[in-house]
Amino acid sequence: MKLLTLIFLLLAFITNTGRTEEVPQHFKHVDQVIWVVDDLDKVIDKWKELGFEQIELLGKVLATAKNEKQFNVRMAVANLGGAHITWIQPLTEKSVFSKFQKDYGNGAMSLVHKLSSEYALQNELKRLSQIDVDVLEELSFSTPKGKLIVTLMDTQEEGKYVLGYVTSETSADMYQGLTAKNRHSMKLNQYAFAINKTEDISKYWAKIGFPEFQISHPVLGETKYHGEIVEHELIQGWQRQGDIAYEWCIPVKGPIVYADHIKMHGEGIHHLAFSVDNIDKVLQDYESIGYKNIMGGTWGEKGKPGSGRYEYVGLENAGGMTMELLWSYQGK
Fold first, then answer.
1. At 54, is the pLDDT very low, low, confident or very high (cuts 50, 70, 90)?
2. Is 275 helix (H, G, I), strand (E, B) or coil?
3. 134 and 231 together in one domain
């Protein structure tokens, strides 16, 4: 009997040790990015100048909070190479968006996930409440495309961005008719963040249901910053739970754009990364209309499988976020 008990306990230990928590299905896809700006018309013009025409201005929109408080915002929606964007320009000093702007300036505030129903949302909120993750704001927007109901969670301080939810049952498809088409056929590759350290943030999101960060120390070559040859280093924390990777960038040695962002905006969402077929063509186009290549470099052995190149385009005046261009060697 003692032997059987020992075998049972050993099997239980092996089973539990090998078990990994499944990431909730809704975390595997970002439905939209809520992005707060102070001049919506300027931001739209800038992104159209960059070759992204799949943008729809919704104008002044009434937002109603759960406590019946109402306020107006200006809103636009866009498809930026596969990234669904909801731009919001606050029109009052007393809203969750104006507070974000006051604290962090222009920039992406929230990554929003879609649940199937109101019932699923309430179950999710109950689950989060049990681990001390509270609701920041529940808002209903009356837009020309229909109603948009968003639940924002109080995750900014510990998680460095606001986790958001919508449901297909209560919200219209805000991006219907907007395709991923753009001038250079750029495709969304990453949502990326700039932070000072990984451990606490990784544990926080793991508690919520995301995978812990996979840490890497990339070996980079031909590194440059604002056109000058420099040595810069970073640590990367990767989350690959879904169709688009999350890259958490920790500056180690500068000058480096992640440290610049943290100094200007604080820790948070830093850039959208896009895969491109011809990185030099894109850079030449953007530089010809006044945009600057603010950082770049290579990874891997040049001309070999697994190698590639990255370049950052400074877009502070186009909404407070940066664009990264990624080119990977494909062989001949």
1. very high
2. strand
3. no
